[in-house]
Amino acid sequence: MNLAARLREMTGEMLAALDGPDRAGSPRDGPGPDGPGAAPVRSAAPRASDFAGLDRLGVCTGPGSLTGLRVALSFFRAIALARGLPLVGLDLFTWGAHTLAAQGRTGPVRLLAPAFLDQAFAADLILPLAPYDLPAPFLAPRAAAPDGRPAWGLRFAAEGAERLDPDPAVLHRLMGELPAPVGPAALQQVAPLYVVPSQAELKWMQTHDHAGH
User: CA torsion sign, 7 to 5 to 87 to 187?
Assistant: First the structure.
């Protein structure tokens, strides 16, 4: 499913949810009370007031399941669009790197996040990060870096890597400092942290490579 193509429809669903159950069946705002998608709208409606006092939203962009991240990001884009709120996208590597920098760590480091089959999503970074430094994660063993740089596991420990729990106070600061896009086009910039191709992308590449030959 192309979730980006459903952004307008999802915005209607979110508006219906945020404005309460009385409008959940409005044809202008999305699904009817018994139509497809009505249950998520009804379940979200009682929490509409949770968004009333917010000046921005934040969403984790990864690493993680690409499908799950896309679903979460599409949901938060729709909420941001419905309420006209800025949306901050933040990945765990950036949060972890700023946590280490706040502890006084400098120089090259490796951060790890659990992946599948005893592998890890890894990012090699130099602290402190420059304002627009972005991690370039790759798959690696759940172990220390081969070049000897210190390594930390994000919310887990591994051989040669201490556990690091990203600091909520650092997250609060980053939420006010990082770019916060507003509007349909700009919100597309809040995208999943890309690590490995999805099955659909692999199939597409195989098909087009075959066609090219």
Answer: negative
